[in-house]
Structure prediction request, 655 residues.
Amino acid sequence: MPGTLIVGFDKTEASQRALAFAAAAAKATGATIHVVHILEWSPYSFLTAQELEERHKRRTEELARAAELIAPAIESLEAQNIAVTSDVRYGHAAELICEIAEQKPNAQIVIGRTGGFSVARRILGGMALALIQASPVPVTVVP
Amino acid sequence: MKRYILGLTALLFSIDSAHAQDAADTADAATIDEWVNSAVAPVSSAVSSVIFYSVDVAGTEFPLIVGWLVVAAAIFTVYFGFVQFRKFGHALALVRGDYSDPNDAGEVSHFQALATALSGTVGLGNIAGVAVAVSLGGPGATFWMIVAGLLGMASKFTECTLGVKYRNEYPDGTVSGGPMYYLSKGFAERGMAGSGRVLAVIFAVCCVGGSIGGGNMFQSNQAYQQVVNVTGGDSSILAGNGWLFGLIMAIALGVVIIGGIKSIARVTEKIVPLMAFIYIGACLIIIAVNSDKIAWAFGEIVDGAFTGAGVAGGVVGALIQGFKRAAFSNEAGIGSASIAHSAVRTKEPITEGYVALLEPFIDTVVICTMTALVITISGTLSTGLTGVELTSAAFATVVPWFPIVLTVAVVLFAFSTMMSWSYYGLKAWTYLFGESRAMDLLFKLIFCCFTVLGASMNLGPVIDFSDSMIFAMAIPNIIGLYVLMPVVRNEAESYWSKLDAGIIRNFRHARS
Prediction:
């Protein structure tokens, strides 16, 4: 079942697990892995005049840093002869991942589990829930 | 002049530090305030008599500068075919982000540029300035304030389009824009490099003055008045100790703008929109409580606008007050907002012009009108109060503890306006003296000194100085707008033809 496995990756331990899971699946099926890194951003947030002036510069820096962050993961996938593409985007994570999934042929989403049963974890682990509720394609949550 | 100012601030600081040593002895505090007042008042009244050169119209003094602003706004309104009404909906769509390319996410959005510019303009002009207008010009001043606000939308549209079009983009990705740049670059394009440069320098000098006056001294002065007011008036521990309040404000400001402590700035930026909502909400509550008087209040406003009953100078008096405070509050034609708006990321400068025309609408037509209605409805006009004290008294008639909320709002509005203006002033300052860390620091230090000065003075001299410096910015700016308005028209034509041809798309509609 070749297709695209979209992996939300931010170098955390959970996202590493998701990537390893996707890598194993890709090797078995010949699917492409699409590594997605989201920089949380709202166009409706408030910035000072100084921040406005520097925004473009900061964005360039942030994109460079993000590219650096996902580079090792991409290299290791390529070393395993897995076809890899990647995307660094600004916005709301779950929303953007769904949007990307709609554009890729035969896509699936793979993310790491971050939530748990404690109250804080339930609140913080919102992305998996949001994805499961809104995703247009199958979602795999890797524990 | 510069030496005089520097000398004055140095003197003030030596007094402050000397005073701090025997802080226990506050008996001479009042004399410090008085001394500051008598030292600065002659300067400010001299400056203001030049800027506010008045002619006699129907027995009333009419400051030419007010006519200058309103005539310009009216000309832009006609020249651009009532753009503020025709494109109002398009402006909202732009702010919502309907036309923003998703691939540009992470750049400054139209909303952010508008919000930042608004946090600089929504401030004491809306609370204290309106009270001054209504106390001097009667309820009728409100009508003229709204008219000036609606016309001012066209001025703001023109100056913000030009601000984006002629901004400087540096190799490191930062941008600088504003009247200094469109005056020098825009005029150079038309073969008038020399006069453009002269106007740009005049503008920058006035902008430094305006940032120190209306953007700083007026703010700290009115915030202080309100704090004294709610902490017990004359018996307040702060009464007569304006310099102490000013010093606290100056330190808080210095921590942000000199120390670069972003967290305070960020907290302020988040609280200010909230305060704006609370303020509008409170206004609505007070208006609702007095709902039986709404028709009467509007009657007073319209009646006063055309009869000028009981107002010094009659109709013209009401009109002048309304126009003056509207211009002071929304800064249309002044050129300041153009500095903040020019940071937006857009391929089409005209889009920021459309977004910017919402600013006088929100500031003047919505918020200022609320304040004026509350003051008129509450019947506190006859108390003889003025400035923020009048607004505060009006709120207290319905909710006795509301002046405390208002105080928090006033201090925060003042603070965020001071932050914005310190940036505008700095941009003008570095345009004049070049960008260097030393010049940067020098300006910020001077700025903080004047925060202390502003709180130490009476309202009269502060308003004179603030008004005159801010209005002075309009002279070079509007000359520039007249010369460059065909550029804006060309921008508009090319933008709409691209939109019609589908080169510029509505991304939101495309998706759904």
Q: What stands out?
A: Strands of chain A lie at 4-8, 32-40, 84-91, 107-112, 139-142. The interface with chain B takes residues 39, 41, 43-57, 59-60, 62-63, 89-91 of chain A (CB under 8 Å). Chain A is about 50% helix and 20% strand.
